[in-house]
Specification:
By secondary structure, the protein is α+β, with helices and mostly antiparallel strands. The protein has 2 domains: 4-140, Jelly Rolls (Sandwich), CATH 2.60.120; 147-259, Arc Repressor Mutant, subunit A (Orthogonal Bundle), CATH 1.10.10. Helix content is 43%, strand content 20%. The chain has 12 helices and 10 strands. The strands form 3 sheets. The protein has a 4-stranded antiparallel β-sheet. Strand 9 and strand 10 (205-208) form a beta hairpin. Helix 7 (172-179) packs across helix 8. Mean pLDDT is 86; it is low at 234-263. It binds zinc ion. Zinc ion (ZN) binds next to helix 6. The site of zinc ion has 7 residues, from helix 6.
């Protein structure tokens, strides 16, 4: 069981009626994910639904030759594992904690039972699933059309919107996996963003220096992504800006330690 205050830190759960949130809180269990931790590996079945509170999870499609690319980022605006409510067949998807933090989990069978009982959950699942489909379609098109620098700006903004900190703990190696491009290309693009004063990168920590510049450089997909998830409505944009006191301490990754976590 978790407290209602804890449960309400997830935007999807917070949008449900109070009585239903109280019922769900009894069935929820807190978990924490470390930076870079693989939450679900390719081929594993989903047995739980996870609602991020402070962690951010990257969902990556993995090909047989191990090439992978991110198709969704999920933070406290959403949930992981909703697809298992429809079908539990395992797929070529890896879920990685892009940024470590806390989350709540509930057994998939319990959530499925609630899904059939509660119209509010059905509406929430339908809306969020639609948003995810829209975002995945956008990601496919964006990857084909927009320049790497534009996509990198979009990615940085999307991560920061879900983060308690303006510092993103990430290596170029990991970013190359998420963006589906060579590491050298990431290094060159990140160097350009740094020279233009948008970000600062040092020892596995990417710090956002100028959000307005990042937004002006990002492709249209960033703003479209906000609309797809109704993030403007929920005021998730800018993450925890203005309440930094609640932000967890940020510790930069050690490059050598991180290399063993790269996938
Ligand atoms: Zn784009």
């Amino acid at each position: 069981m978790v407290s209602l205050n804890e449960l309400d830190r997830n935007e999807l759960l917070f949008a449900l009626p109070l009585e239903l949130r109280q019922k769900l809180a009894v069935r929820m269990e807190p978990i924490s994910l470390a930076d870079g931790e693989i939450f679900r590996e390719v081929g594993e079945r989903s047995s739980e639904i996870v609602f991020p509170l402070t962690c951010i999870v990257s969902m990556d499609y993995v090909l047989k030759d191990s090439f992978s690319a991110e198709f969704l980022i999920v933070g406290r605006e959403g949930a992981i594992g909703f697809e298992s409510l429809f079908d539990q067949r395992p797929g070529p998807v890896r879920m990685v904690a892009l940024q470590g933090g806390n989350a709540l989990r509930i057994n998939r069978d319990e959530m499925r039972r609630r899904f059939f009982e509660e119209q509010a959950i059905q509406e929430s699942v339908f809306q969020y699933t639609y948003s995810q489909i829209r975002l995945m379609a956008q990601t496919v098109t964006c990857n084909c059309r927009h320049r790497l620098e534009q996509r990198m700006c979009r990615w940085i903004l999307s991560v920061q919107d879900r983060s308690p900190s303006r510092v993103i703990k990430i290596t170029h190696e990991m970013m190359s996996h998420f963006l589906g491009v060579r590491r050298e290309a990431v290094t060159n693009a990140a160097g350009r963003l740094q020279r233009d004063g948008m970000v600062e990168y040092s020892r596995g920590c990417l710090t956002v220096l100028n959000r307005d510049l990042l937004e002006s450089e990002a492709c249209e997909c960033y703003q479209e992504g906000l609309d797809a998830l109704n993030l403007r409505k929920h005021n998730l944009q800018y993450g925890y800006r203005g309440c930094e006191k609640s932000a967890p301490e940020v510790s930069c990754w050690n490059r050598s330690a991180n290399s063993s976590k790269d996938h």
